[in-house]
Structure formats: structure tokens, C-alpha cells
Design goal:
Structural class: alpha/beta
Distance between the termini: 24 Å
CATH class of the largest domain: Alpha Beta
Strand content: 25-35%
CATH topology of the largest domain: Quinone Oxidoreductase, Chain A, domain 1
Number of strands: 15
Largest sheet: 7 strands, mixed
Helix content: 25-40%
Radius of gyration: 22 Å
């Protein structure tokens, strides 16, 4: 091999090493706007960890941002085209590839799981995460795919149940019990000592029972609000239980948790105004907004997982190249638990 050719090969290898595969979208729209492209591989800053991603998920925040639904998302991510988050994905699990010089909690080769939050970026072969953000050593009794599907649903359910003041002996209804947030809301409410009723479709009754629900309601056959039961907390994980029905079976002054909104922008704004009025009158405490991980939440969830108290549910698995199909399935609203993306790093 002559010197010139060898030099060209080395330049080529170095050039390839600085790129990675990622699912990128440059316009809002249907799943087909997602494309697999070569993009620059990130380099960790002093306080960051570079993670080689083994698995990620598609959650509601991903497909809502992709299609800019509701419309006000455009004011956060670009009015006409996405500008801030062009690589989606909030949850991940993988191995530490490199660390910044100021990082002390992690080392190369560590198996980790975490969440990028609204920075997104997990639908790629590599990502950088600050060591003091949402990242921890992976639970020993979970695969990378299982671990990737923990933090969005787990942190969201934990955040809202705590805000609702869940206590031992309370009666809690979880609407959308088989979704990515619902499966954790069922298990966490049981962990906190509540008597839990899960609302789901016929196909998911056995799953919800297996998660620990004391009672299940098949919404295709029964209206949960007409069963004569009264709850301390109604936790709607999909934004579809409705004010009238939820308040009908909620004790006065109880907590009505609304996670995520459904419908158009006007419907969401109307819901916000109605929430304020209900809270002011004392009929119920309406709890909504964005979930945020508190200090210690990752360790808390990891502890429950390793103790066998908490598990996740994976419905379907897709490769990174099948990202559009994964979005389409997740957006349809009939998934059980999580949709996982297998990310095969090739560098």
C-alpha cells in the first residue's frame, strides 16, 4: 500500500468516524417526514457523557412534535419548520462511549439508561447527556430495551401521583391504564398503598390485572362513571376521560389528574379554563402541566425495578430504519405500554 493511498484510507476512516445515523425531520407532517441521515457525531463537553444508544422509544411527545400537534408546539420548536429538535426521542439506554474531563459518576463501558427530556435526540446512534441530568446506571435485571422504556412513563406517573398526594388506603382510578404512562401509574399507585382501578379496552384487561390493579373496567362495555364507585384520585393518562364523567365519580375536593390533552388548540384552551374554574370552586383539585423529574427519582424508580416491584411493557420493536412505521403505530393510540426502537450503532 503506497503512502498516498494509505493516507486516503486513513482520512476516509476518520471522516466516517465523525458521523452517525439518525432519524431526522426537517418539516412537520406525517411519519414519512422522518428520514435516516448521516449527521455529525456529537462530542461530549466537560460535564457530558457520550452514550452509544442501544435502544430508544417512540412516545406521545415524539409524534406530537413531529406533526406539530397541538399548534402551539410550533412556537416552541419553529413556526414553519422544526428548528430546535430535529432528532426526536426522549428515552434511551446504551453504553458510555466517552466522558468529559469533569465527569466523575460514569466511566467508559458503563451500561446506562435515561431521558433527554425536551432536548430529545435519542433516535440516533449516539447522544450526549450532562452527567447531572436524567441518566443513571441501568437496572441489573433489565435489558437495554426494557430500560429504555422506563423514564418517560415512570417519571410522569410518579410526578403526578405525588402532586395528587396519593396515600395508603385511597381509591385511585387510572384511565388509559395500558399505555406508557398508565402501566407505571397502576404499579406506583399500588406501591403507595392505594386501591387501584384500571380503565382499558377488552384486549388489555389481563395485562392491567397483571400489573396489580385491584379492579379493571372495560371502557368498551362499561362507563366507569356510572358504576357507582367514588375515587379520591382520577388519573387520566391520555386526556380522554372527560370532565363531566371524571368529576361524577370523584369525591368533592379530590384530585383530577389530566396528563396530556386531546383535541385541537381550542379544546385544550377550554380545558385549561375549565380546570381553573373547578379548582377555584373547590369541586376538585385539577392537576396538569409538564412532568419533571425531581432529584432522586431515577434512583427511586431503579430501586423499585431491581426489587421486582416495577416493570415495563414492550408492545412492539422496530429498527431505526423503521422509524416511520413506529411513529404510525404509536400515534394510532392502541399500543400496550411502549414502542421500542432498536438502534444499531455501526461506528
Amino acid at each position: 500500500m503506497n503512502g498516498t493511498f494509505q493516507g486516503l484510507v486513513l482520512v476516509s476512516i476518520c471522516g466516517l468516524a465523525s458521523f452517525m445515523k439518525a432519524a431526522v425531520y426537517t418539516r412537520y407532517g406525517p411519519p414519512e417526514v422522518l428520514e435516516i441521515k448521516d449527521v455529525a457525531k456529537p462530542a461530549p463537553r466537560d460535564n457530558e457523557v457520550l452514550v452509544r444508544v442501544h435502544a430508544a422509544t417512540v412516545c406521545a411527545a415524539d409524534w406530537r412534535l413531529r406533526k406539530a400537534e397541538p399548534f402551539f408546539i410550533r412556537f416552541l420548536n419553529g413556526l414553519w419548520v422544526p428548528k430546535k429538535a430535529r432528532i426526536l426521542g426522549m428515552e434511551f439506554a446504551g453504553t458510555v462511549e466517552a466522558v468529559g474531563k469533569a465527569v466523575t459518576r460514569f466511566g467508559e463501558g458503563d451500561p446506562v439508561f435515561g431521558s433527554t427530556g425536551f432536548r430529545f435526540g435519542a433516535h440516533a446512534e449516539y447522544l450526549c447527556v450532562p452527567e447531572d441530568a436524567g441518566i443513571a446506571i441501568k437496572p441489573v435485571n433489565m435489558t437495554f430495551e426494557e430500560a429504555a422504556a422506563v423514564l418517560f412513563g415512570g417519571v410522569t406517573a410518579l410526578h403526578f401521583l405525588r402532586k395528587a398526594g396519593v396515600q395508603t388506603g385511597q381509591r385511585v382510578l387510572v384511565y388509559g391504564a395500558s399505555g406508557s404512562v398508565g402501566i407505571f401509574a397502576i404499579q406506583l399507585a399500588k406501591h403507595f398503598g392505594a386501591h387501584v382501578t384500571g380503565v382499558c379496552s377488552t384486549a388489555n384487561l389481563d395485562l392491567v390485572k397483571s400489573l396489580g390493579a385491584d379492579e379493571v373496567v372495560d371502557y368498551t362495555r362499561e362507563d366507569f362513571a356510572r358504576a357507582g364507585r367514588v375515587y379520591d384520585i382520577v388519573c387520566d393518562t391520555v386526556g380522554k376521560s372527560g370532565f363531566a364523567r371524571s368529576l361524577k365519580c370523584l369525591k368533592r375536593g379530590g384530585s383530577y389528574v389530566r396528563i396530556g390533552g386531546s383535541g385541537g388548540m381550542l379544546s385544550i384552551l377550554a380545558g385549561m379554563l375549565r380546570s381553573q374554574w373547578i379548582s377555584v370552586t373547590g369541586a376538585a383539585k385539577v392537576i396538569s402541566g409538564m412532568a419533571k423529574a425531581a432529584e432522586g427519582d431515577l434512583a427511586f424508580l431503579k430501586g423499585l425495578i431491581e426489587a421486582g416491584t416495577l416493570r415495563t411493557v414492550i408492545d412492539r420493536r422496530y429498527s431505526l430504519e423503521e422509524i416511520a412505521q413506529a411513529h404510525r403505530y404509536a400515534e394510532a393510540g392502541h399500543k400496550k405500554g411502549h414502542v421500542v426502537i432498536r438502534v444499531a450503532a455501526t461506528i
